[in-house]
Design a protein that fits this description.
Blueprint (H helix, E strand, L loop, with lengths): L8 E6 L8 H11 L4 E4 L4 H4 L9 H12 L3 E5 L7 H6 L26 H18 L5 E5 L14 H15 L2 H8 L26 H29 L5 E2 L1 E2 L8 H4 L7 E3 L9 H15 L5 E5 L18 H11 L2 E6 L25 H14 L13 E4 L2 H7 L10 H14 L4 E4 L10 E4 L7 H12 L3 E5 L22 H6 L1 E8 L6 E6 L3 E4 L1 E7 L3 E6 L8 E8 L1 E6 L2 E2 L1 H14 L13 E6 L2 E6 L5 E5 L2 E5 L4 E4 L3
Parallel strand pairs: 1-2, 1-9, 2-3, 3-4, 4-5, 6-7, 7-8, 8-9, 10-11, 10-12, 12-13, 13-20
Antiparallel strand pairs: 14-17, 15-16, 15-18, 16-21, 18-19, 19-20, 22-23, 23-26, 24-25
Helix pairs in contact: 5-8, 6-7, 10-14, 14-17
Bound molecules: alpha-D-galactopyranose (GLA).
């Protein structure tokens, strides 16, 4: 990756087009005072840059970039393609997206384009070409911000152009319609196709839609967005091979497969708005930040957007209490971010986001929020030693968009929240302060001592092979309920699940005969054996061929059946056929860490503390409501509650 700066970047989206020129010098003066190093400019400025087709007006942006450059503020320049102007919708109404129900979405908001619209693509790329030619060599520009939050509002469109593009995508994937029929299992319900032209986008239908058709449309739609990004990237790279490219991801975003996307960005960046009203939001935040680091293969990443206080899209929009903005920012730094940016610099006076907080609030600089911004800017300026520093993880948790999409389709054994299932296992390690990376189940996991595959519902042949290698190379493998049930076409792996006859089932030494979801999500039962505890939600009838039974179900439909098994052959291969309670999860995690000889992390002083080690620094966050006291290298630290964060400065 290209290192952009030896300082931790600090700043946010800067939208000068919303303000009269007289405000701009004041903006830049206040940015300097706040320690701002970088701003993202022109994210939504297409209408100002190209007021009518082919007529560009760059003068104002020249002045903005020159002004920023004169005061030493660097620019991550946006390509401006996220919100097409009114004339595009007017001249090309077919470029507007069509919803699942068949409604053509109107102009008047943003992101109102079909990902497969040729008119949108043509005009967007012409704009990018002009921007790249004009600003590629501008000394203020340090990186490109391509588009904005691809797929956030319109991840799929059911318009005629999308349908044609979907058919082309299917032709490339399957070659022949016979192969499509095989993959989609169209012998079922008389769904056989005679040609690709008969295939439609899977919009509203009478009953459960074809699972593989739906998954393929999800895959196609994610690819369509990526192809827009790649078309812009090609232009930018031709003009400016020296400038890194990024686009802002949105954490655990189901509609776009970030494993497929991440190799195409030079710098992974993310937008995250933890909900201050959710006492557990720091857990999802920690995982999200670990995902961003993992998507870049361990490289530092950029927090492209967060709020300084309230957002404007939650009911209600609770402000961030004192300390929470700092905590959110430093949690990102602790988990690998080399830059902390915000939406946005100056709070808007008009438009849909005028009640969204910003770095400079409506009430001006003498405010709680702005004082916090200045303090954070000063603090980040002291943490330059962290730039480029790694976070070392010896545990990997598998994350896979196919499994996520497939298990949440209609017609599955139960209503399963995939991310909730994954994060319960992640959280077990978080509580032990052990760093976790996310990996794709097909990835080479040789550098990890422990690999956990929660609800790995869809496993390709390559993934079955990769996971089964973990115990063979003396690692610890943990596979959970509902894993290895389907292949990449969503066909059942016959003969006892866990990938059917083959390497994973051999590695685990068990077979699954039947699923038994609990009648309610919170229906709990005991498991007993050499390990005992509580579990809920899920049971399976498990047949053991070659493994030790660690615990059996002591209640519920599967009473007496094995619930947790371990096969020790080289390393260890665990199968967990249920959803463990927090307490049981903690004891399992301890067994896995001990078995794999993974040292516990820098220990948390309380159950509600989060600790991370990055580079030579240790971070402790206190998410609890009472103070946490601990000693580090003989020093006594008293960390207040409610989101205080301590950083080791030795
Ligand atoms: C996203 C968008 C921004 C803004 C914020 C509001 O991050 O990228 O333009 O709309 O949400 O929270």
């Amino acid at each position: 990756m290209t290192e952009l700066s030896p300082r931790i970047r600090f700043g946010g989206d800067y939208n000068p087009e919303q303000w009269p020129r007289e405000v701009w010098p004041e903006d830049v003066r206040l940015m300097r005072a706040a320690g701002v190093t970088s701003v993202t400019v022109a994210v939504f400025a297409w209408a100002q840059l190209e007021p009518s087709p082919g007529r560009y007006e760059f003068g104002w942006l020249d002045d903005v970039l020159d002004l920023l450059h004169a005061r030493g503020i660097r620019v991550i320049l946006a390509t401006g393609t996220a919100s097409p102007p009114a004339w595009l919708a007017h001249l090309y109404p077919e470029s507007l997206p069509v919803s699942f129900e068949g409604v053509r979405l109107a102009f008047g908001s943003r992101q109102q384009f079909s990902p497969s619209s040729s008119a949108y693509r043509k005009h967007a790329l012409a704009l990018v070409e002009s921007i790249a030619a004009r600003y590629g060599q501008h000394p203020a520009v340090e990186a490109w911000h391509v588009g904005n939050e691809y797929g956030n509002h319109v991840a799929r469109s059911y318009d005629p152009e999308s349908e044609t593009a979907f058919r082309d995508w299917l032709r490339r994937r399957y070659g022949t319609v016979d192969e499509l029929n095989r993959a989609w299992g169209t012998a079922f319900w008389s769904q056989t196709y005679g040609s690709f032209d008969e295939v439609a986008v899977p919009s509203a239908a009478p009953m459960i839609r074809s699972p593989t058709q739906v998954l393929d449309f999800d895959r196609f739609s994610s690819d369509a967005l990526l192809s827009l990004y790649l078309a812009e990237a090609e232009i930018l790279r031709a003009h400016t091979p020296h400038l890194p490219l990024t686009t802002n991801f949105m954490g655990f975003f189901k509609d776009v497969d970030y494993w497929a996307w991440a190799p195409h960005v030079d710098l992974v960046s993310d937008d995250l708005y933890p909900d201050p009203a959710d006492a557990r939001s720091h857990i999802v935040s920690a995982a999200t930040r670990d995902l961003m680091r993992s998507l870049g293969g361990g490289r530092p990443w950029l927090l492209m957007e967060q709020a300084t206080s309230a957002v404007n899209w939650r009911p209600p929009n609770v402000p961030l209490a004192d300390g929470r903005h700092r905590l959110n920012s430093l949690q990102a730094v602790a988990r690998g971010a080399d830059g902390i940016l915000h939406f946005q610099w100056r709070q808007s006076a008009a438009g849909a986001e005028k009640f969204h907080s910003a770095m400079l609030p409506h009430a001006g600089e003498g405010t709680r929020v702005h004082r916090g911004v200045r303090a954070l800017g000063a603090e980040l300026a002291e943490l330059g030693d962290l730039v480029g520093a790694p976070v070392e993880a010896s545990v990997a948790v598998c994350l896979d968009w196919d499994s996520w999409r497939a298990i949440e389709q209609d017609g599955t054994p139960a209503s399963v929240d995939y991310m909730d299932s994954v994060l319960r296992f992640y959280e077990g390690f978080l509580r032990r302060c052990v760093a976790v990376d996310f990996i794709h189940p097909e990835a080479d996991s040789a550098r990890y001592d422990i690999v956990v595959a929660p609800v790995a519902h869809v496993l390709s042949d390559a993934a079955l092979q990769a996971l089964s290698q973990v115990p063979a190379r003396w690692g610890t493998l943990v596979v959970t309920y509902l894993s290895g049930v389907l292949d990449a076409d969503l066909h059942i792996r016959l003969g006892g699940y866990l990938g059917g006859h083959g390497p994973l089932r051999d590695a685990l030494g068990v077979r699954v005969e039947e699923f038994a979801p609990a009648p309610q999500q919170d229906f709990s039962f005991s498991v007993t054996g050499s390990l005992s505890g509580e579990a809920d939600f899920w049971q399976e009838l498990l047949l053991v061929d070659d493994a030790e039974v660690v615990a059996r179900f002591a209640g519920g439909f599967a009473i007496g059946s094995p619930a947790i098994t371990r096969k020790s052959d080289g390393g260890e291969a665990w199968y967990v056929a249920t959803r463990p309670s927090t307490d049981l999860m903690d004891r399992l995690v301890n067994l896995w860490l001990d078995g794999a000889e993974v040292p516990a992390g820098f220990d948390a002083p309380t159950a509600e503390a989060e600790t991370v080690v990055r580079g030579r620094r240790r971070f402790v966050a206190n998410h609890g409501s009472t103070a946490a006291e601990f000693s580090v290298d003989g020093r006594h630290v008293a960390l207040p509650g409610h989101g205080a964060m301590w950083i080791d400065r030795t």
